[in-house]
Specification:
This protein is 66% helix and 3% strand. With 135 residues, the protein is an all-alpha fold.
Length: 135
């Protein structure tokens, strides 16, 4: 078996003392794997990788769910804030309209009372006629 092109068997001609310490590995036993061992190692590695991916996928699903919940809560909060702002503006304009209506009523009170008196006099005089002459 080789690592970075270097044979790890004791019977090769490599001077391991000149290699960096972390690369110089001498294995006393020749490790060999049967095709069944290789297949078993591949299956174990695949299972481990699939388990890690499943965990990360689950984490991502949790993040996605939490983000969706946060968004909906934010949307609800913004909706409530917009509703409160609309109520505030409505009340503000409603109060302003009430003030303007009150001022209009005060400014036109004499005219309205005069019209009401003329209307009342007109209704009361229906069918009675009126006298013309001097007294």
């Amino acid at each position: 078996s080789t690592a970075e092109g270097i044979s790890l068997n004791d019977d090769d001609d490599v001077d391991y003392t000149t290699l960096p310490q972390k690369v110089a590995v001498s294995l006393p036993v020749d490790i060999s794997f049967t095709p069944q061992d290789v297949q078993s190692i591949k299956e174990e590695a695949t299972d481990a990788i699939n388990e890690i991916f499943a965990e990360r996928f689950s984490d991502l699903e949790d993040i996605k769910r939490q983000t969706r919940e946060d968004f909906l809560q934010s949307k609800k909060t913004m909706g409530e804030a917009n509703k409160l702002e609309a109520e505030r503006v409505s009340n503000e304009y409603g109060d302003l309209i009430d003030v303007k209506i009150q001022k209009l009523l005060e400014d036109t009170r004499e005219q309205r009372e005069s019209i009401l008196m003329k209307s009342k006099a007109s209704r009361e005089s229906i069918g009675k006629g009126f006298e013309v002459g001097s007294w």
